[in-house]
Amino acid sequence: MRFDEAYSGKVFIMARNDFENAQAVIYGMPMDWTVSFRPGSRFGPGRIREASIGLEEYSPYMDKHLEEVNYFDAGDIPLPFGNAERSINAIEEYVATLAEHGKFPLGLGGEHLVTWPVIKALHKKYPNMALIHIDAHADLREEYEGEALSHSTPVRKIAGLIGSENVYSFGIRSGMREEFAFAKESGMHMAKYHVVDPLREILPELSGRKVYVTIDIDVLDPAFAPGTGTAEAGGISSSELLEAIKLIADADMEVIGADLVEVAPAYDHSEQTAIAASKFVREMLLGWVK
């Protein structure tokens, strides 16, 4: 697949078949090679696209219509099954190409490790970038059962690359004691349990900055998103996440890219997780792509 090749399968609603003039590019990262509990998030990108067909094109939250944003759906990056290292390299190469062409990368996961190569690619263009991380899990492990490449390690890797002080995590309610100790001692910003209020407080610190946003669907309580591989009770509601997306849209900063990860459709026969995810993607397109 070429980076600008038209996708022949189902695309996100109202995606244009025009890479050259696109402001944003939606792309899938169908990888779940390192998950520690339930696999299946490699099927997330496809189900999010399919669920998007049921969306209204107009958002009352943003007061915008999808016709106001020109975006291209490139389909899924072809990743070598079971090979985490080669998959990571392929993602980094792909996103670097999007960055060279000035496109806003909007990735669909896939497990959360896929965020790591995206940040590596964007950091070369934006060395002073910051990360907003919305998730149930800290993802600050150095390894999981001896494996440095794990969906429990991406934020720790990112902190080492961009500096812990440039990492802002919200909604965290699960992790090892050592992960919470690292967050406290390293200078990163971690808000436990909640998203909206701590996000509102911290956004002025990010004024004028270039920021990447990663959202793990399991930040939601399983009542709102059962279709994920590592569900954690006690999360936020879909309404709260929509409010957080709007806060970021209204903030005085530049969102340079984003992803939504860990949708695992097999565990949600009602499809409410994929339906919610597709709505979040719509709001991200309308609010964050300038």
Automatic annotation (TrEMBL):
It holds the Pfam family Arginase. Its EC number is 3.5.3.11. GO terms for molecular function: agmatinase activity. Keywords: Hydrolase, Metal-binding. InterPro entries: Agmatinase-rel, Ureohydrolase, Ureohydrolase_dom_sf, Ureohydrolase_Mn_BS. Coiled coil: none annotated. Belongs to the arginase family. Agmatinase subfamily. PANTHER family: ARGINASE/AGMATINASE, GUANIDINO ACID HYDROLASE, MITOCHONDRIAL. This is Agmatinase.
